[in-house]
Protein 1
Amino acid sequence: MNTWIITGVTSGIGKELAKLCIRKQIAVIGVGRNQEKLQKVQQELGPLFTPMCFDVSDTLAWDAFAKKLQEENRTDIACLVNNAGQLPSCKRFDAYSLEEIQRTMQTNFLAAVYASKALLPILLKYNKPTIANVTSSAALASMAGTSLYSASKAALKAFTESMREELKGLVRVVLLCPGTTKTDVFRNQAEDFKSNANHIGMRADVMAKKIFAAIQHKKRRAVIGFDAKMMDILYRYFPRSTPATLSSVLKKSKMDAYQTMYRKEKNDKNGTN
Ligand SMILES: NC(=O)c1ccc[n+]([C@@H]2O[C@H](COP(=O)([O-])OP(=O)(O)OC[C@H]3O[C@@H](n4cnc5c(N)ncnc54)[C@H](OP(=O)(O)O)[C@@H]3O)[C@@H](O)[C@H]2O)c1
């Protein structure tokens, strides 16, 4: 039996992916930062699920986890899925606090770098292991209101693509770019934003199934969901105008976050605030 390490298993896509693995008789070590939520997942998923409680942005925790796996002489770790992530609230870049900026880059980008670095020696004990990084459609095309999130996911995309070349022949490296999915990731957004995402989003279990298939079928890159595919195609053919096109669609929407952002822009121009 082989084992997958999945981060961010206490909800959404990560939890559904863990469920799916276990249904397929793949053991899961699930990383989460909330002990109570992890225990609930463990009760739900049973003995093939092992919880690991730490914050993915904690480098020392990754080193300690890697040391533990080394001591246990684990040779069964077939796959690392860097899935944990967060979406900061939608606003203009100068409205983010320093804490929000650092936390977003730590969680969405640096955590996957720490995890890959710490766990590579253990993964290499398995024949052709996999590292799969969950980025986002936001890594494929940027727009107003998501500067921080897009930048963190684009950094992860670039890291993934370089790492794939560096580890060619040793590790399969999969870039995953999901589109909108109905999960708790929108918890920091205004109600209208949340309800739009819920309206167009794919179900988390369906997204997890597609992610699982992409990993199993040894895909290098999977862009999943209609909106993600559209953003990919638009940016590929119209790299200069796509950010403006996407932003102007959002500007015309009646969503609170965009109304506030563009009111701020008007005030800046008029010298008021
Ligand atoms: N939903 C979408 O529309 C969408 C689209 C594209 C990409 N994605 C990406 O998909 C991934 C999964 O997100 P989701 O939609 O399933 O959202 P979610 O339901 O909010 O799940 C995120 C998971 O990451 C965990 N997490 C966040 N920060 C962490 C930290 N510092 N340490 C440990 N765990 C942490 C959360 O734990 P807690 O329960 O403790 O918060 C939760 O288990 C993310 O990388 C997200 O950016 C989502």
Protein 2
Amino acid sequence: MDYNQVLENAKQNMGGRCMVCKECNGLACRGLLPGPGGKGSGSSFIRNFQKLQELKINMDLVYPKSHIDTQVEIVGKTFKYPFFAAPISAVKLHYPGYYDDEGYSKAVVNGCKVSGVIGFTGDGEHKECYTMGISAVEAAGGWGIPTIKPWGVEDVITKIKMAEEVGAPAVAMDIDAAGLPVMAKDKNIGAKSVEDLRRIVQSTKLPFILKGVMTARSAEKALEAGVYGIIVSNHGGRVLDHTPATVEVLPDIVKAVGGKMKILLDGGIRSGLDVFKVLALGADGVLIGRPYAIAAYGGGEEGVAIYTERVGAELRQTMIMTGCQSLCEIDSSALWNF
Ligand SMILES: Cc1cc2nc3c(=O)[nH]c(=O)nc-3n(C[C@H](O)[C@H](O)[C@H](O)COP(=O)(O)O)c2cc1C
């Protein structure tokens, strides 16, 4: 199988909701939620993509050639590349037909595992969304990071225990989930105080990652609560219309908490060039959402591995073309006019 075949298969398997566009830019699926679209006008999803495209990269080929190292260390593990599959759940609702959450999560976590990266799993309105992801992580020998919705603190702690039991190396929470139309109805879902977060963090030895941070102020509060890392994310534009792009808010967040906690980012990342740009802005790593869904629907585990290697090869090539031989050499001097 090659990547074109993966895309062709995905068109058949994604239930017509995702059109597997040539560019996954949020235009054709504006407002399609349930489905893969961004909320409302879709502007937050579209802007994530566009602002990344506007960043341009400086070439530098005058340097002593040596080995290119794309490895990164996060949550106490070394990964082949600094990008990971983002949590995607309630797949029967968003892409009707082909997979349930367990089948989808298995394709993603196993495909990531064979290619040296890791997949996050999700949570949702129905408890099976979480437990099916947990089963996939268990079947992969603990190789996956469960991501919990911001339920009441005790419920979050119960779900963290389930992640511990299956040997996950870390656990995450998408604190922005109250903005999802299906979750907004649930009164148990919502914001957490610094004290709430601290209780959650202290309930486990696992590194705790907070997903859905979009300002330096929120990042500082997460740091105060003791979280291991944050994911700068607007949920792929699915929780609030008219947000800035994640790459637009990243520099302020890096200024506030960079070096003090791990900073990951998602939203609109499609290629190794995009991964490079986000690292140049100061992130430690990135998550990729919809393209991994397309890869899983188009080729299962193998599709996920094919997409991972494609993005990895693009990242490596970008490093060669910019004179960055390891990830720590990638900084803002690699971005044009920045
Ligand atoms: C269909 C769908 C389902 C998602 N489900 C979850 C989820 O269960 N938990 C979560 O934290 N994020 C979820 N997300 C958001 C992604 O994890 C990620 O933040 C977003 O897709 C990144 O943007 P990108 O798709 O442009 O890469 C979902 C996204 C989509 C498209």
Protein 3
Amino acid sequence: MNSIRELLSHHGLPGDSGRLEAEVLLCHCLDKPRSYLYSHGEQPVCPEQASAYESMLAERRAGQPVAYLVGQREFWSLALAVNEHTLIPRPETETLVMWALELPLPTNAAVADWGTGSGAIALALASERPHWQLAASDASAAALDVADLNRRRLGLTVRLLQSDWGAAFAAGSLDLVASNPPYVAEGDPHLEAGDLLFEPNAALVSGRDGLDAIRRIIEDAVPVLKPGGWLLLEHGYDQAAAVRGLLQAAGFSQLASRTDLAGIERISGGCLV
Ligand SMILES: C[S@@+](CC[C@H](N)C(=O)[O-])C[C@H]1O[C@@H](n2cnc3c(N)ncnc32)[C@H](O)[C@@H]1O
């Protein structure tokens, strides 16, 4: 039987993150935290667990995202279940959550996360603002199943509904719409690399310029927001000016964009007066 240290030293995963990914996969197979790998490096690993780990390494070498292999990704310090029907939540989306939490909204604000996927944005907001009335919607029933699992595991109160963007929401009912929609242009070469190859197309791609969903969301949000309501949108690295332009044309004011950790404008929003 190989020890933990031996199994980790022959992971064969490429890049700077290879060793870390191997550790995450081995922790998953052993059902132990990462600290265990260091405190029990000489511990032999039983053949069943070693074989499960080797199969996962092979799938990872073939490109399968680590989050799909272990079935979860951390977002806003919440362990969220993910699968092939959901986008893997990204750190830049936490910038949108932070902005939403800073808005001058009523204590019992009515807030919706459109295109919720695993439930990431809505559940992060629910964990911080238990008095907000949160709704999370998606066109994908399979994604909503994952959001439902996360909602139940975390014990958070969020209403889930299937909806084509704003279609299921009543006029003048919301104080805030937050959305991380699909925003990659059709044929973008990034779609052929990394995790994007394995994520659902409907979560990523949105028309020739990547802005089809954003145009729809802005159009749908106008009647659904209350006067003074806010719309916050995540978008691509080169779309901030275009999104602010679309928001302005639809009557939004107080337009602004927020940057991600790399200093790139990735979230834009405004207030409907
Ligand atoms: C980029 S993913 C974001 C998922 C999640 N909010 C996150 O940040 O991890 C976009 C989501 O929009 C959903 N979506 C695509 N088209 C939609 C539509 N017409 N109406 C509602 N949701 C849609 C997809 O199913 C996907 O879950």
